[in-house]
Amino acid sequence: MQRITRKVDKKNSGVLFLSAIFFTKLREEGCSDEVNRYFHSKRKDINIFEKKLIFIPINYSLHWSLCIVFNAGRIKESWNYHNDGCVGPNDDAPFLLHLDSLKAHDMCLVRDTICQWLDSEAEKVGAFKDLEKPFMSSIGVHQGLQKVYMPIFRPSGKCFINT
Question: Range of 44's domain?
Answer without folding.
Answer: 15-153
